[in-house]
Amino acid sequence: MVKKILLINCGIHEKNKQGLVRILKYLKIEYKTGSVADIPSYDIIYSPSEIINTSLYPHKQFIFGPHFSTFPNGSQLHLLQNVHYNSIYIQPSDWVIQLWKNMGAAQVLHLKPFPFPIDTEKFKPRDQADIKREKTNVLVYYKHRHPHELDLLKAFLAEQTVKNYRIFDYKQRYKEEEYLSYLQECNYGIILDAHESQGFAIEEALACNVPLLVWNAQTMSQEYGANYKAIPCTSIPYWSEHCGEYFHHYAELPAVFELFQRKLQGQNYAPRQYIVDNLSTEKCAERFMELII
To answer: Are residues 91 and 150 in the same domain?
Structure first.
């Protein structure tokens, strides 16, 4: 019998919701967006941020997360003790899973990594020939890092006579269609970002076949304006040598930039293929099936 899935309509990131719906349609699984009152009619219940006492529904299967909080806390874990054996808790990447384990959540929760898919039909080069067409634009993506670091980056680009770049500032709430259009004319991108549990904007750039140079965060204390402790993290939880290059300290930038430019000239990167192989709807659907079997 084909299982039916209920999506609890509470506190879900829109990109996650869109990705999950694509997965369910791809798998031809019947689903409904509803509330706790609908639980009796469904086999699997996905609740992104609402805690449910699953012991009341021993014959149902539950998937929770990842939107309860950045970190597990005492009151939350106390509530989650009502979560029964018939449930799992997802986070988008391995480093976040490890962070939750280090904070004691694994004693209460069955933790599983599960990334949401990138829309590779929307975020792609304009056509097949466009993949190898020479482009001149440069993306600078800036999110939650110290403004001084952005100033350093702009000064470095000036030294390298890189003028044809555009800064997409996360706080400015740019339009997605504008971002996509620019990505499709990019030769490469530079990322200055704090911690990311998944990093949709970065992965969407890769899906457009834009190689990236990333000033990678090492601790959550690097998020500007926040008050996190120096907990280990990354800006790029999904990454390989096919995506580009990264560095952690400004002093490393000149050498890494030179290497990046050399490999760009040699067409040594294949970022879109990495996304298709790891974060497409089809690949994430395979992971989803592993959660519900």
So the answer is: no
Residues written for the chain:
293
Provide the CATH number for the domain around residue 208.
3.40.50.2000
CA angle centred on 130, ends 282 and 275, rounded to 5°: 25
Distance CA 242, CA 273 (A): 8
Q: Is residue 1's pLDDT more than 70? A: no
At 187-202, the pLDDT tens digits run 999 999 999 999 999 9
Q: Find where tokens 């004691």 sit.
A: 104
Residue 148's domain comprises: 128-278
Closest CA to 224 of 194, 191, 192, 190: 194
For the chain, how many structural domains are there in total? 2
Are the C-beta atoms of residues 170 and 224 closer than 8 Å to each other? no
- Predicted TM-score of the model (pTM): 0.94
pLDDT tens digits, one per residue of 37-55: 999 999 999 999 888 888 8
